[in-house]
């Protein structure tokens, strides 16, 4: 499962194919590419009412749903929000011609993975700003950052 990171569902996916993954009475997050704004959908069926919260922002869904549907290869897959949070990392690209020694980076970020100028720091629901403040205090030039979800980081 998840050879890389989980991904957004493709915009061409019919939401009806996600309904069987939803449990009655529980709001299921749906991470959908191209969703302009979050939308709450309720579908009534013979097995009961199904609630979907559809958004392009995974962080938004993680704060509001206990489970989220993401794309695993070509298939929608329901994953616990707690598991997805555990996979959340901040990737910091350092902008220095001479990078700090790996020991210095490990001292600053003990849980980080460091490879070729990129520091991947597991943050869960923690703040990216805290890690970037450490970089500023230590005068580590940062050229780019992004939040990624790397399966198996827990």
Structural Rg: 18 Å
Mean pLDDT: 87
Approximate helicity band: 10-25%
Taking pLDDT < 50 over at least 5 consecutive residues as the criterion, the unreliable ranges are: none
- Find the count of extended strands (DSSP E, 2+ residues): 9
In DSSP terms, counting alpha (H) and pi (I) runs of 4 or more, how many helices?
A: 4
What count of structural domains?
A: 2
Q: Based on CA inertia axes, which overall geometry fits?
A: elongated
Major beta sheet summary: 5 strands, mixed
Task: Tell me briefly what this model is.
By secondary structure, the chain is α+β, with helices and mostly antiparallel strands. Helices cover 18% and strands 36% of the residues.
Question: How are the secondary structure elements laid out?
Answer:
Blueprint: E1 27-31, E2 39-45, E3 48-55, H1 58-62, E4 67-72, E5 75-80, H2 81-86, E6 88-94, H3 102-108, E7 113-115, E8 118-122, H4 128-137, E9 142-149
Parallel strand pairs: 1-3, 1-4
Antiparallel strand pairs: 2-3, 4-5, 6-8, 6-9, 7-8
Description:
The chain has 154 residues and is an alpha+beta fold. The protein folds into two domains: 70 residues, no CATH class; 62 residues. Helix content is 18%, strand content 36%. The protein has four helices and nine strands, in the order βββαββαβαββαβ. A hairpin with a 2-residue loop joins β2 and β3. It is elongated, with a radius of gyration of 18 Å. The protein starts with 26 loop residues before the first strand and ends in a 5-residue tail after the last strand. The mean pLDDT is 87.
